[in-house]
## 1
Amino acid sequence: MTVWSMPQVEDNPFVHLVRWRVYRFVVGEEKLDILSGWDLENACGRCSTPVVQVEVGAKTLRTRSGRRYLLNGAPGFDDDAHYVFEARFGPPNDRGVPRVDVTDEYWAMVGPIEMRIDQGSSVARAILRKAEQVFGDVDKARRWLSSPSPILADIPLSLFGSRAGRRLVYDELVRIDLGDYA
């Protein structure tokens, strides 16, 4: 099988991927997350440059090259994408750089909101209940949790990965509930 170059970012700025996975390389202090999957438009397996941004609500990852990848559906495994990935990076530990499959971390950020909250802690579920109380509606609460917040400078759900992040989201809900915007 041959690995060929893909169109330049300017010519192909947006890619739809299915059967995708994300692998993390740790090089010193730096963590580089590389996306791999089946490109629907070009009908081939491919892998990305390092991921630099996750657009949670849009289920999109932006990479260092500037390309944006829309993740269609749940993660999976694609033989062609795996071939391209190994052609580019070698087999596991071949170059002495450890890599870890972090697909579940990304799926927790971009998967269906119900799954993200269900996989979260009891604190995450308590935050959802607080959001439902504050907004008076389940759909409004879920939209707020999945949309960028100018006060938090992030998407509330993307902050669920740490105790400090969950605290920020909860505190913001309390402020909204109290009408305290000072």
Note: Helices lie at 79-89, 103-110, 113-119, 122-135, 138-146, 163-178.
## 2
Amino acid sequence: MSIEFIGFISNNNSSETVVRQGPVLDPTHIETVAKAHENAGFDRALLAFHSTSPDALQVAQHVLNTTSRLNVLIAQRPGFTAPTLLARQFAVLDQFSRGRVALHVITGGNAAELRQDGNTLDDKDERYARTSEFLDVLKLEWTSDKPFTYKGRYYQVENAFSQVKPYRPEGIRIYFGGASDAAIDVAGKHADTFALWGESYAQVRDVTSRVHNAAVRQGRPTPRFSLSVRPIIAPTEKQAWEKAEEILARATALQDKTGYRKPADGHAT
């Protein structure tokens, strides 16, 4: 099986250890990092979502316009945009970019942050149930050759239809993450790629096994898996751990100054 290398394009030059000096939305930084990804041979780059950040869908449009080969992975949250509309937005962008678009579905685990966007559905299992309905409708918009009606608990549409479809016959890939039982069930039904962090071998085996079993229950093939890590490189393991501790100390010292936080959904912004 082929390996896909996925990078990350931030909206400005900042991180846990770098204090932002320029604007929140820095087009020059975005263009430079996007082209660096493409020139380095990355397959895809993530555009993350947060309730206070620039809209990832629009940033992705700029990235696609400034590159010719790099694919993008656009994080979006169910509950903020109607699934019929988001499906058409993604299909249009996929057509313009000739199939370089993928969707990263972030249900969100931090209720306080979600409320910043007016999302008051606090129960996590309910949010995943809504995500499943959202993806039901999204996929129908992408695949249905005639108007369809959908009546769920969270979404109801009548005679919905999209004239524009994804660029490729196989459609737009859906990336998905989450460790709860509710999240795993949704992954089994909808995910093309399941995203998880670089945890212990035992934890990774456990999650991938649960996702596989959930897909089997849905009669679907096992999704591909994405493992997110931040390599810390040094001549020896001891020096790498020392370097990691030094990075952590700098990040902790700068946290209040930068306002930089790792969101609860696990994807930096």
Note: The radius of gyration is 19 Å.
